[in-house]
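Reopening closed ticket. The problem is back. First fold of the pair:
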Amino acid sequence: MYVDVVPNRHSPPAILLREAHRADDKIIKRTIANISDWPMDKVDALRALLKSNGGMQVVPSGEAPMDITRSLPVGHVAAVLGAMQRLEMADIVGLDGIVGQRVQALIAARILDPQSKLATAQGLDGEAGGWIQTLSDALELGRRVDENDLYAAMDALHARQASIERALVHRHLQDGSLVLYDLTSTYFHGHTCPLGKMGYSRDGKKGLLQITVGLLCTRDGCPVAVEVFEGNSGDPGTFTAQVAKVQERFGLKRVVYVGDRGMITNARIREDLATLPEVGWVTCLRAPAIQELRDQGAIQLGVFDSQDMAEITSDDYPDERLVVCRNPLLAEERARKRQELLAATESALNEIVARVRRAKRPLRGAADIGRSVERALSHHKVGKHFNVDVTDDAFVWSRNDERVRVEAELDGFYVIRAKVPAPQPAAADLVATYKGLSAVERAFRTLKGVDLKIRPIHHRLENRVRAHVLLCTLAYYVEFHMRTWLAPILFQEDDREAAQAERASAVAPAQRSPAAKAKAQTKRTPDGLAVHSFPTLLRDLATITLNTIQPRITGVKPFTKTTLPTVFQRRAFELLHVPLP
């Protein structure tokens, strides 16, 4: 037998497995199989095998007839790149050629294993091996990639930010949509970035420069736009920029903004939203405003002995809707926390009393004693609940129990404040809408946590920092959809309607559906598959490898073979609607 290649004039050559024998003076050929659809490395291996000594070669006992010279993980890379292709990320980014491929690599790398751009470039350049080599091969990046190439790709991405956000908004939002907006901060250790400023740290990292990041999301928490501000930017000031962006850049005139009590303030309502009659908003009142409503009699505390939600009106908020809510669990938590803060403050005050009364080097002077007392009262922010008396050589304090009692009456209370164009939603829907901000908080946890690692920020140029944040946001956009598609085999909720039915009211804590509870308890899906978190699922898919195999037969070239996927891995690719590698 032999391999015969028969040329065709107007089509690819036919590759045939044949045998031949001589009859009289003629050579008779018989075709055994048409192997034209075989890859050439497989054809070459068969040709070499047929040319070997009887098609056989002796292999010493106990040794394999072939060697696996290399194994590259391909499963998780194929899943991420397939999801990106399904989402048409190349069209969203809008960059052609090698620059566009490098941006795709940066987005995928952020999901697979977030590293610095230098570390990513070192992996993409040369025979690095591992998943990053698979990524480079899949995107045909070639063998010469350095960090400057990736920086250039980031610069090109930053230049496209407005177009990218416009494409995402047009895909996910329309007139009348809910728009969630929230702000976070993230620190870095550099000192030369113009955006880095000292400000209120939401990470609890004092003494470090930071930037603030504003994220616009759909009501489900899907990110559609992001903006980086200087680290000392306040919440209300950034909201003004988002209103202008949505109105002017995105062309959406009828939307409903959802923001927390520090974001949509009286000033922002008066200056930014009151002039836009088709724009609605949903926010929450601050504690002093709630106390004022209570003092006016607008909030009747006795009503909430039998219900957890009531809609009220007030002359202070004309043409607005106010929904008063009381969460007993929140009330218990607030009371517990207050007691801990009061106890800690009392301990600090008693230490000052001891310093004033001690015989050796006592604390003296009303000014010095007063400064110590002020620090103790302000540290836990419960100083308003204490009465103090300071003289040059004495200090006494007492707790104002009446003030504590009055404040405790409002434990667990919050008031939704809204102005929404017709048709008017029910009060419960307004509460649920405001609680939707938790989706943005979840996005921030993913961006800043171990999943995408927006920090540490390794850049110092303003545009590079902005590009880095945009890159992480696009990676979260892909991961958000992957988590949604893979929800049946992840621990997250995959039946929202059933979960909502389990909830006693909009004020009550969110509940899991029976199916989600069963997944959490048994760690198995209904069809017996293991349930994963998103990171462990990616690690499982990474066990699908592309193996380079070298037969121990003289003249036979190496070939590649992908490991067979498990039932779980097949299910994951089915849910993603992505072909197996």
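Second fold of the pair, where the issue appears:
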Amino acid sequence: MALVGIIGAGIGGIATAVQLARYGIESVIFERDRIGGLIRNAYSVENTMFFPDGIKGEKVVEILEEYVRKYDLKILYEEVRAVRKTGGLFEVETASGVHRFKYLVVATGTRPRRLPFEGIIYHVTEIPERHYGRVLIIGGGDVAFDYAMTMSETSDEVIILMRSEPKALPYLQELVRKRPNIRTLMGQVWEIRPISGKQKLLARTSAGNFEADLVLGAIGRVPNIELVEGIEDDNLFLVGDVKNGIYRQTAVAIADGIKTAMVIWRRERYGDTE
């Protein structure tokens, strides 16, 4: 039996597993989709300090996959259905059965806040690779501006529609300003609906009506914490975006994972309770 179960193979989960492997502690990672999590959506990752010119999210995923191979990390590509604490152990239930661990690390990240309209896409990784005419992005934070940079490379026009002044990093705002095919507008969305006979959406907003090939939503995110709600235990750890609120940064998730692994190792080695 592995000592540690890790739910989520994003940045935080992989960082935890790698550091545990360095200590000789076996872990099992559960991932319902693909390695990398939301980092796959990133146009440029700037906050790890080791890539002064930034690095594409897809390249970060390739690096994570190298770590998985180097440390022979065990990943089960299964969705976790339930988590329980029974008889001193965590029980992680998947389609293949129940897996038991002394320690459980939850690195499940976040999910998007959704708009009350159909047809909206929330992750750029879900978008088919082809050329687009107009793309409308709703939101004014880092994600909205990052998505705009990505879509500007394959679209004639990208519009960022914000309810208020932009909250994105000044650096991202400057990148967007330099792209001639991106413009920002202030306005409220009233309606988004398919256009009959066209593979387009009509967005009715206070800034005007827009026909768009795609509408992306980037109005915030909420933590994926449901699996362990109500469970309070010193051997349960939250890592990365699932616990960090607005401080959702790659470097922070890496640090969370490494620190969590260090705490687990010290508990096993010295009986530390800190």
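Update: turned out to be a display glitch only; the data is intact. DSSP finds five helices and 17 strands in the chain. Residues 250-270 form the longest helix (21 residues). Please close again.
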